[in-house]
Write a structure and sequence with these properties.
single chain, alpha/beta, 8-stranded mixed beta sheet
Amino acid sequence: MSELRFVRMGFGERAVEYREAWDEQRRVHAARFADEIPDTVLLVEHPPVYTAGRRTADVERPLDGTPVIDVDRGGKITWHGPGQLVGYPIQKLPRPVDVVAHVRRLEEALIRVCAEFGLEATRIEGRSGVWVLGDPVASLPSAGGLSLDLDPRLADEEFDPRLNGPEYAPSNAGQRREDRKIAAIGIRVAKGVTMHGFSLNVNPDNKWFDRIIPCGIRDAGVASLSAELGREVTVDDVLPVVERHLREVLEKAEPRPREVAGAAEDGKTAREGTPAREKVSTAGQAPPAGRVPAA
C-alpha cells in the first residue's frame, strides 16, 4: 500500500463538529477516488454527539429524545465526544473490497496501541472492534443480585439496561468484570474507497454511553485507556502512537480483492460473494473460544 497521509483536524477546544468532519470525509473520498491525493487518515476529536449506523434499531436510541445523526456507515449507534480519538481512514482498495480484512487491519493497529500503553486488548469472535476481556462467565458476579441463568440481558430481548440502575450501565462493565469495548469500528466503502473508521476511548466520560445501547450490545460495556490503566492518558498522548501503528499496519499490508467462493481457477475474481477474512497477526492475543457472538 502507498504511503499514508495524516491530517489532524482538531482536538480539545478546537474539536470539530461531526457534520463538518463528515463533509470533509466526502471531499477527501472524492479526491482519493480520482487519484488526486494519496490514502489519507483524518484524525479528530468531536464535541458530544450520537451517531447511528444503518442497522440501528429505534429502541437503541436515547430514551429522552436526544438528537442522533443518522450516517451511512455500517454498524449501530455510538457516541463521540471529548476524550475520544476518532480516525477516518480513506483508502482505495482493490475491488471487490474485502471489508472484513480492512476492519481486521484497523483492529490490529489499535490492539498494538493499547499494548504500547500497557493494556492487553483483543478481538471477540462475532463482534467488531477492540475489547478488554472480562472474567470467564462462570466467575462473574451476578448482575442485580440475579443468578447468571436469570440475567435478563441474556434472556429477555426487550430488557432495557437504561431503566434498571447502574448495575447494568455500560460504563460500569469494568466494575462488573465483564467484556468491555475500548475501540469501536464502523465503515462504509463506496467506489472501492473506504470512509468512516474507528473511535478509541482514551479518557472520555463513559456515562454518555449509558443513554443508548452502544453498538446494540446489551451484555457487555465500554472501557477507556485511562480507566483500565488507573492513570490519566490524554488524546495528545495517544495521537502519535495511533499514527505510528496505523502506518506500520496499513502501509505494510498488501490488500487483495475479496475472495469469492467458486471463483475461476485462473485467479479471476467474481464480482459478488461472501467476504473472506484476511489473516492478520494479533500478537498472540487471539480471543478465547466460546465467546457469545453479537446479535
